[in-house]
UniProtKB/TrEMBL annotation:
Pfam families: TsaD. It comes from Kribbella orskensis. InterPro entries: ATPase_NBD (IPR043129), Gcp-like_dom (IPR000905), T6A_TsaB (IPR022496). The lineage of its organism: Bacteria, Bacillati, Actinomycetota, Actinomycetes, Propionibacteriales. This is tRNA threonylcarbamoyl adenosine modification protein YeaZ. Residues 35-151 form the Gcp-like domain. NCBIfam families: T6A_YeaZ. It comes from the Bacteria.
C-alpha cells in the first residue's frame, strides 16, 4: 500500500492508495493551521483502518516537501521519514506546488500560489498538461510579495490559497479553485510516475530567522 500525506499548508491531508494504479482506498483532509502535530497521526491511523491495512502493509510513503511554513512542514516530513525508517520502506518527496498544479483540470498553462504568510506567496508556473495529466514546471518555486509578481502571473489561471487571499493584488477571479494540496493527487502522481519525486527534505525557500552565533563576546573594557 502507498501512504501519502501533505502538511505544507493549513490543511492536513492523508490518503492510502494502491501503489501501482494510485486508486485511493481512503482519504481525509482537515484545515487547521495550528494543529498539524495533533491531527496527522490520528488521520493516518484512521485512513489505514478505513483502507483495511496495517503499517507493515505499506510499501512506500509519499510526502509533500513544501514550500511551506516551518512547523507544519516539519511535522509531515519527520513523520514520513520516521515511519519509512522503522518500516524499512522508500519515502518519496514531492514539491507541494506540483501537487496543486496536478489538481487543476484546466487544459491551459497555470500558476500556483500558496500562502507563505508575512503577506507573501509561494509561487510557480506550469505548462499545460501532457496526455498523462502531468505538468512541467517552467519557473519557481519562489517566494515573493503578491504585488511584486503580479506581472509574472498575469494572464494565467492561478490556483492555491495564495490566489484566494491575494486575489485583488494579483487581479484574479478565484471562484472554485483548489486551495490546498490533495493527498489523493499526491498518491496518484507518485504511483503513476506523473509527479516528479525529490528527496524528502524540507523546501523552505526563506533564509532562517536566526543565525549561528559568532562566538562569545568579551566583557572586558576595551
Amino acid at each position: 500500500m502507498l501512504l501519502a500525506f501533505d502538511t505544507s499548508s493549513a490543511a492536513v491531508t492523508v490518503a492510502v492508495a494502491d501503489p501501482v494504479s494510485g486508486a485511493v482506498l481512503a482519504s481525509s483532509s482537515t484545515v487547521d493551521a495550528l494543529r498539524h502535530g495533533e491531527l496527522l497521526a490520528p488521520a493516518i491511523a484512521e485512513a489505514m483502518a478505513a483502507a483495511g491495512c496495517i503499517p507493515r502493509d505499506l510499501t512506500k510513503i509519499a510526502v509533500g516537501v513544501g514550500p511551506g511554513p516551518f512547523t507544519g512542514l516539519r511535522v509531515g516530513l519527520v513523520t514520513a521519514r520516521t515511519m519509512a525508517d522503522v518500516l524499512e520502506i522508500e519515502v518519496a518527496g514531492v514539491c507541494s506546488l506540483d501537487i496543486l498544479a496536478r489538481q487543476s483540470s484546466l487544459t491551459l498553462p497555470v500558476a500556483v500560489a500558496t500562502d507563505a504568510r508575512r503577506k507573501e506567496i509561494y509561487w510557480a508556473l506550469y505548462d499545460g498538461p501532457a496526455a498523462d495529466g502531468s505538468r512541467r514546471r517552467l519557473e519557481g518555486p519562489a517566494v515573493d510579495r503578491p504585488a511584486d509578481v503580479a506581472h509574472v502571473l498575469a494572464g494565467l489561471p492561478v490556483i492555491g490559497r495564495g490566489a484566494v487571499l491575494y486575489a485583488e493584488a494579483l487581479g484574479l477571479d478565484t471562484s472554485d479553485v483548489p486551495e490546498y494540496p490533495s493527498a489523493e493527487v499526491l498518491a496518484l502522481g507518485v504511483a503513476t510516475g506523473t509527479l516528479p519525486v525529490v528527496a524528502p527534505d524540507p523546501l523552505y525557500l526563506r533564509r532562517p530567522d536566526v543565525t549561528m552565533s559568532g562566538g562569545p563576546k568579551s566583557v572586558l573594557p576595551k
